[in-house]
């Protein structure tokens, strides 16, 4: 699911542009794979009525064919499933030259402007929220009262959203199966195709929010950190106590660039919004002040720039708060790649964040 996680913001941005223009769209969802494939079950892309697309199902080899098929989906107004089998010599039969030696099945749903572009509009809103959800999509149905394309968005702490399930009763077996399947995938964190689920084939796919990263420190090495994170589609906020650092520029791609009083960080920034926090002000007292306010936040990743001795000194100075932080605080932050420049340091930091988000996505 990581590839979907990293490209979803780009897809949402394209969706907003196309929605403003009233462009009819097709949602393409990978629902099954066998062997070596570029993307896995649960990955989504969008195709516009003019053939433009955002996201990749393959390395760019299948998208042209999918764009052609999307026109037929929009003309007919009904979902369709497509199978690409590139195993053995089948790749040559398709004439696509993919060379992945795998099978990939995709489900194509028309998104009607008159229908509010559902269910993708709700998927997009959930993706920029704070909590994981699960999307259950009926890709085939043997039941008269339910059609392929019916979708349930399961939110464990919110209100579930259903599309195309209106004809099911409250105690219907399929509705109960959908809820049970969503809870199961919420626990495993892995997409699953359930064939014959109460008379339907259903894809259950986890919906992970776009990662949000807080960078505390706006030095020269923070500029490429923000840029690389933005390239991956993450939401990044950068904050510093020195107005000149923020004002000199370089953070145009950040969601926000803030001048803050380190002693009142929580008043400037909602710390509970972030999945990762990197402390890198290059000022010992300031880093200590930042860290003193991070002990209880939910972020799954906390890191501080600098050698191990610096981390140890910071934790010791923080006393009880330092002991609370010790199991969570990574330092030195970043993978050991021999970094020796602002750009390579940024690469090491972002690579470690990428690996962390990937592992968290698989484990949750």
Let me know the number of strands. 16
Detail the poorly predicted runs. 1-6, 90-95
Domains, number = 3
- Report the CATH architecture of the largest domain: 3-Layer(aba) Sandwich
β-sheet strand percentage:
15-25%
Compute the gyration radius: what is it? 23 Å
Strand order, sheet with most strands: 13-12-11-14-15-16
CATH topology of the largest domain: Rossmann fold
Mean pLDDT over all positions: 89
CATH class of the largest domain: Alpha Beta
List the secondary-structure elements in sequence, H or E. Answer: HEEEHEHEHEEEHEEEHEHEHEHEHHEH
Query: Which structural class fits the helix and strand makeup?
Result: alpha/beta
Q: What does the main sheet amount to?
A: 6 strands, parallel
Q: What is the overall shape?
A: elongated
Instruction: Estimate the helix proportion, in percent.
Output: 25-40%
So how many helices? 12
CATH superfamily of the largest domain: NAD(P)-binding Rossmann-like Domain
Short structural description:
The chain has 364 residues and is of the alpha/beta class.
Give a structural overview.
Residues 1-6 and 90-95 have low confidence and may be disordered. The chain has helices at residues 2-21, 63-76, 90-94, 120-127, 173-188, 222-231, 243-247, 265-268, 284-292, 308-317, 320-325, 342-363, and strands at residues 25-35, 44-48, 53-54, 80-85, 102-111, 133-141, 151-154, 161-163, 192-194, 200-207, 212-216, 235-240, 256-259, 276-279, 301-304, 329-330. It starts with a helix and ends with a helix. It is built from twelve helices and 16 strands. It has a six-stranded parallel sheet, sandwiched between helices. Strands 3-2-1-5-4 form a five-stranded antiparallel sheet. Helix 6 packs across helix 12 (342-363) and helix 9 (284-292) packs across helix 10 (308-317). With 364 residues, it is an alpha/beta fold. The radius of gyration is 23 Å and the shape is elongated. The relative contact order is 0.10. Strand 11 (212-216), helix 6 (222-231) and strand 12 form a beta-alpha-beta unit. It has three domains: 1-117, no CATH class; 130-210, no CATH class; 212-363, 3-Layer(aba) Sandwich (Rossmann fold), CATH 3.40.50.720.
């Amino acid at each position: 699911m990581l590839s979907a996680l990293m490209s979803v913001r780009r897809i949402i941005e394209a969706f907003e542009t196309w929605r403003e223009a009233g462009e009819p769209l097709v949602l393409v969802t990978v629902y099954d794979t066998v062997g070596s494939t570029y993307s896995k079950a649960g990955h989504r892309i969008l195709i516009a009525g003019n053939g433009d697309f955002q996201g990749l199902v393959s390395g760019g080899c299948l998208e042209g064919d999918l764009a052609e098929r999307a026109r037929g989906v929009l003309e007919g107004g009904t979902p369709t499933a497509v199978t690409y089998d590139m195993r053995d010599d089948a790749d040559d039969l398709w004439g696509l030259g993919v060379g992945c030696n795998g099978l990939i099945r995709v489900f194509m749903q028309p998104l009607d402007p008159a229908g509010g572009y559902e269910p993708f509009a709700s998927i997009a809103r959930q993706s920029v929220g704070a909590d994981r959800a699960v999307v259950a999509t009926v890709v085939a149905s043997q039941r008269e009262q339910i059609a392929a394309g019916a979708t349930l968005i399961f939110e464990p702490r919110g209100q579930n959203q259903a599309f195309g399930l209106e004809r099911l009763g409250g105690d219907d077996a399929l509705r109960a199966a959908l809820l049970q399947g969503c809870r199961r995938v919420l626990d495993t964190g892995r997409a699953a195709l359930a064939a014959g689920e109460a008379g339907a084939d259903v894809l259950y796919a986890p919906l992970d929010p776009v990662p949000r990263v807080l960078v505390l420190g706006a030095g020269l090495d923070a500029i490429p950190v923000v840029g690389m994170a933005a390239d991956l589609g993450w939401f990044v906020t950068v904050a510093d106590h020195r107005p000149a650092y923020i004002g000199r520029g370089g953070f145009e791609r950040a969601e926000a660039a803030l001048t803050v009083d380190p002693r009142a960080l929580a008043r400037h920034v909602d710390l509970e919004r972030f999945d990762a926090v990197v402390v890198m002000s290059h000022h010992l007292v300031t880093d200590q002040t930042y860290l003193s306010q991070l002990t209880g936040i939910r972020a799954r990743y906390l890191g501080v720039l600098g050698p191990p001795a610096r981390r140890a000194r910071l934790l010791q100075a923080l006393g009880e708060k330092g002991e609370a932080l010790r199991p969570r605080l990574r330092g030195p932050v970043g993978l050991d790649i021999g970094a020796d420049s602002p750009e390579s340091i940024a690469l090491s930091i972002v690579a470690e964040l990428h690996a962390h988000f990937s592992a968290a996505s698989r484990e949750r």
